[in-house]
């Protein structure tokens, strides 16, 4: 049967699941990928904040009259 793995015993369940899913610590590339993921999440947060700031600045310039006078 395809789902049966004789070399992996289901006890304790947590270890079995980690082995099947190749959880953190099982694969040397996992730590590097986790670090890259954290860096990318930080970059997303920084860019999101920058985008918010730039949109606010743009909105300020869009609502300001170009020549300083009021329109009728």
Task: Describe the secondary-structure layout.
Blueprint: H1 13-21, H2 28-63
Keywords: Coiled coil
Protein name: MYC binding protein
Coiled coil: 30-64
Q: What proportion of the residues is helical, as a percent range?
A: 55-70%
Q: State the shape.
A: rod-shaped
The radius of gyration over CA amounts to 26 Å
Pattern of helices and strands: HH
Distance between the termini: 81 Å
Continuous helix count:
2
- SS elements, strand count: 0
What structural class is derived from the secondary structure elements? Answer: mainly alpha
The residue-averaged pLDDT reads 77
- Poorly predicted residue ranges: none
Biggest β-sheet description:
none
Q: What share of residues are in beta strands?
A: under 5%
Protein name: MYC binding protein
Coiled coil: 30-64
Keywords: Coiled coil
């Amino acid at each position: 049967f395809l789902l049966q793995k004789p070399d992996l015993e289901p006890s304790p369940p947590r270890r079995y699941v980690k082995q099947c899913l190749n959880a953190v610590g099982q694969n040397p590339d996992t730590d590097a990928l986790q670090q890259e993921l954290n860096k990318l999440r930080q970059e997303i947060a920084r860019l999101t904040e920058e985008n918010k700031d730039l949109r606010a600045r743009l909105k300020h310039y869009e609502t300001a009259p170009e020549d300083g006078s009021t329109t009728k």
